[in-house]
Every structure is written in structure tokens, then in C-alpha cells.
Design brief:
CATH class: Alpha Beta
Structural class: alpha/beta
Radius of gyration: 22 Å
Oligomer: single chain
Helix content: 25-40%
Number of strands: 19
CATH superfamily: Alkaline Phosphatase, subunit A
CATH topology: Alkaline Phosphatase, subunit A
Shape: globular
């Protein structure tokens, strides 16, 4: 909600920018881009995706104004590789950046993981570099997670970096409350909430950027990543709504609402500045929500009916909410069921602004015809490669989706799981034996793809220790499946 002071400030800015606003509405002006990335957001966390507990009126309104995707995917089940795929258009396997930075070492597991790089390579071209060359003012506000000093957003084409990761600085004990120790964002007090502070910084960037031409804002929220922290006022709202129960989690719900408020504030500002009708807005996430907090029985994110969550190649770990609002192009209230991936954003955005894409190697494709109402795109399959153990319980694996069929290959023992996502989106029925020919065909295609991108594979661990490896398992007293939780009452 906008208070009186903000309203008056916005009115002043609007008057000062009236000439600029007229220019921005000129159809020859390239559109602005607001890329709004939520961290660890579950596929069902927003009201427009079916959640009835979380309140997300601004995100829901954007979905009514634009296009909502039901089969959008991250390129990895964890953050760093997924983010690398977004800004480079290259799959994590090709980049050899397949684990979050710096990753966790598990020396006693069955497999030895490939090495995890400490940063994205400076040799890889990025979306920000291309847009900057076209006259865009480029800003990265929020989480980076692709490297520290020397490998920050400003090293990859961003003019502005606020709160991008800097691993050389100590982090505060409380992630979401000040004081903060982020890159170009330090100080503040224990009463300052990070999501709100980032919104203020984003508003400052937009106000300055629109005075010179089009802008690209990569707004990468730290929320709704753990730890669960929010202001007490909003927590109490959901505690009351929940009748004092712990699930759905009231703190997590408050964090989701703060993200929704942030998007609403930025849209309000764009509207006041007269540039909303010339701004492409994309809302999505980097991977699936955390299904269980530290492998206990407390559920966090809403992954709807999808299996597992962050750290797994099951649908709950890689399927994402995606909303696209392209003024004058996306038909209000439309829903698209075509599978798309985070690797598609770079070539798609270049097409949307009418610019030539100059990056030679890409694994995504231009999906802008879908925004214009096309019912399909010419793509054979989607692929994933995650040769790692995840903190949430996932094991080294790879996956392919071709049409309705999805195959997961588990590297510890090479067993296959085959699912029909139209009949069984929750991945409960493994057809690998009853449709053995289909499973083997998809396995061959997955292997061929891995070879084509020079994917690094895990190796058998000569020091495998079953007793120590079991320490990663779930709570005692139940039959534990890390993708489903406790299987016994």
C-alpha cells in the first residue's frame, strides 16, 4: 500500500518525468525489462497457482493481466546453476556449474561428485552484457550467488550491483534483519527487513534509469529462502488465519506476502512514472521450494501435488511458477501449458526487444511466439544434469522430458524411473518396467545430450561408508523417503 508521503513523492517524480514518459510511450523506444526472481519458491506458493493460505494479490493480478505457465522449469534444482542458466542461456552441464556455490562435500557417499567451481566463468557472455551494448541501463539488486570479488554482477555487464553476494564479507547472524553486510548494502538496524530494503533500492534504480533510456532490472529476491524470518505483525496475521497451527507455516506465508508486496510496489512506481505500458515483467523462481525443513517433518513451501522439492529432479524440485506480462502482446488471463525452461529467457528477451542475439552458444530457445498465442514451439526435449548430493536429500541424477514422458536416471545404481506427467504429475507411478522400450529410448537420448555438452559425471567413491552416509537420512522412528517425508503414521 502506498502512503501519503510516497504518493506525493511519486506525483513529483511523475511531473518531472512527463516529457520522458511521452518518449517512453513512443513505439520506437525499446521496452524496459523487470525480471523478478524469487528464491526457492514452490510451484504452488501463489494464489494464482492454487494456494489458498498465502496472500499474493499483486502476483495474482499480474497473472490476470498476462500469461501464466503451468510447465515452466528451472534448469537445475538448486540456485547457482539455475541462475547461471538464466543470465547466459547455457545449460549448467555445459558451464560445468551444476551445484550451488560453494556446495557441500559428502566424502562418505557412494559417489564422488564432480568439482564445484567457485564462480561463473568471465568468458561466458551474458544477457546483461548484450542489453548494455544496446543502450540499456542494467541493474542487479539482491542475490547473485555466482561468485565473490572479481565475479560480481558488475563483472558480467551490470551497471549497478546492490546486495550481490560478496563471500569476502561476513554475513549477519540474522539473514533478513539488519545490520546487513552485503555488497553495496551495509548497515541498517534490527528493525529493517531485507525484502523491504531491496524494494527501496530497486525504486531508486528505476527512477534514475528511466531518465536515460530503457532499463533491465534483475530483481533477485533473497526471500523466500531459509531462514524463516519476517516481521511479527505479518506473522501474527497468518497465525490467526491458521488457528495457531504450524502448517501451513505462518512465517513462510508472511515471507511470501512480503515478496508480493515488493512486486506491487515496483509496478505502482512504473505506473506513476508512466512506463508500465512499456515494461516487460517476468516473475519466476530459481528452483523448487523446500519441501521439508532440514529433513524433519515440518513442511515449508507449497509445491502443490508435485513430488519432492529443492535439490531433487522430481517435479517439485524443478517446476517453477512463471508469469509473463508483455504489454500489448500477452493476452490477459491466458494460461500456457507448453514446457519451457529458464535457459529460454536470454534468447527470448532479445527477440522481444527486437534485437539480434549475438551469443553463439546457447541451449535455450526463443519462446516469444508463445506469448503471442502460438500453441507450440519446435523443441524435442528438456534436459537436466545434477551429479550431486543435495542438502535436502537428493542424489546424483539426470533427467529428460520429452512430451508427456519424463525419465530420471539415478547415477548411484543407474536405475530408471519413468513418469507420464499428464496422467501422473505427482510422479507416483514408475512406468520404467511396463514401458521399458520408452525408458531405454529416453536414456539413450539423455546420454547423447550429456556427451554433446561435455557433462561431468560423478565417480564411484572408494571410501564409501554406509554408516556415515546414513547420517544424512531423516528422523528416526519412520520409514523415510526424502522426496516424500515419513511414510509411516
Amino acid at each position: 500500500m502506498i502512503n501519503r508521503r510516497e504518493f506525493l513523492a511519486g506525483a513529483t517524480s511523475l511531473a518531472a518525468c512527463s516529457k520522458l514518459s511521452a518518449l517512453t510511450r513512443n513505439p520506437t523506444q525499446k521496452p524496459n525489462i523487470l525480471f523478478f526472481l524469487v528464491d526457492d519458491c514452490g510451484w504452488g506458493d501463489f494464489g494464482c497457482y492454487g494456494d489458498t493460505f498465502h496472500e499474493t494479490p499483486n502476483i495474482d493480478q499480474l497473472a490476470r493481466a498476462g500469461m501464466r505457465f503451468t510447465n515452466a522449469y528451472a534448469s537445475a534444482p538448486v540456485c547457482s546453476p539455475s541462475r547461471a542458466g538464466i543470465i547466459t542461456g547455457q545449460c549448467p552441464a555445459r558451464l560445468h556449474l551444476t551445484q550451488w556455490i560453494p556446495g557441500t562435500i559428502y566424502p562418505n557417499e557412494k559417489m564422488l561428485e564432480p568439482p564445484t567451481p567457485k564462480h561463473l566463468s568471465l568468458a561466458v557472455p551474458t544477457l546483461a552484457e548484450q542489453l548494455k551494448a544496446l543502450g540499456y541501463r542494467t541493474g542487479a539488486i539482491g542475490k547473485w550467488h555466482l561468485g565473490g570479488n572479481g565475479y560480481l554482477p558488475e563483472n558480467f555487464g551490470f551497471d549497478v550491483n546492490i546486495a550481490g553476494d560478496n563471500h569476502g564479507n561476513p554475513g549477519p547472524p540474522n539473514h533478513y534483519f539488519g545490520p546487513f553486510f552485503y555488497h553495496n548494502l551495509t548497515g541498517y538496524t534490527k528493525n529493517d527487513y531485507l525484502t523491504q530494503v531491496l524494494s527501496t533500492k530497486a525504486e531508486e534504480f528505476i527512477r534514475q534509469a528511466v531518465q536515460t533510456g530503457p532499463f533491465f532490472l534483475y530483481m533477485a529476491e533473497y526471500a523466500v529462502h531459509l531462514p524463516l524470518q519476517a516481521k511479527q505483525r505479518l506473522i501474527e496475521k497468518y497465525q490467526k488465519k491458521n488457528g495457531g497451527k504450524s502448517e501451513p507455516d505462518p512465517v513462510y506465508a508472511a515471507m511470501v506476502e512480503y515478496v508480493d508486496i515488493a512486486l506491487g510496489q515496483l509496478r505502482d512506481l512504473l505506473n506513476r512514472l508512466g512506463v508500465l505500458d512499456n515494461t516487460i515483467i517476468i516473475v519466476t523462481s530459481d528452483n523448487g521450494g523446500v519441501g521439508y525443513q532440514r529433513r524433519n517433518l515440518h513442511r515449508i513451501a507449497d509445491n502443490a501435488n508435485l513430488r519432492a522439492g529443492k535439490g531433487f529432479l522430481y517435479e517439485g524440485g524443478i517446476r517453477e511458477p512463471l508469469i509473463v506480462h508483455w504489454p500489448g502482446v500477452t493476452k490477459p488471463g491466458t494460461v500456457c501449458d507448453v514446457p519451457v525452461t529458464g535457459l529460454d529467457f536470454l534468447p527470448t528477451l532479445m527477440s522481444m526487444i527486437g534485437a539480434k542475439d549475438t551469443i553463439p552458444t546457447q541451449d535455450g530457445m526463443d519462446i516469444s511466439p508463445l506469448f503471442r498465442g502460438a500453441g507450440s514451439i519446435n523443441r524435442d526435449a528438456l534436459y537436466w544434469h545434477y551429479p550431486h548430493y543435495s542438502d535436502q536429500g537428493g542424489t546424483p541424477s539426470g533427467a529428460i522430458r520429452e512430451g508427456d514422458w519424463k525419465l530420471i536416471e539415478f547415477f548411484e545404481d543407474n536405475h530408471l524411473e519413468l513418469y507420464n506427467l499428464t496422467l501422473d504429475p505427482g510422479e507416483q507411478y514408475n512406468f520404467a518396467f511396463s514401458f521399458a522400450d520408452k525408458a531405454e529410448d529416453l536414456r539413450r537420448k539423455l546420454h547423447a545430450w550429456r556427451n554433446s555438452v561435455d557433462a561431468l559425471m560423478p565417480m564411484p567413491n572408494p571410501n564409501y561408508n554406509q554408516e556415515w552416509a546414513n547420517l544424512r537420512e531423516g528422523p528416526a522412528g519412520c520409514s523415510w523417503d526424502p522426496s516424500k517425508g515419513c511414510l509411516e503414521d
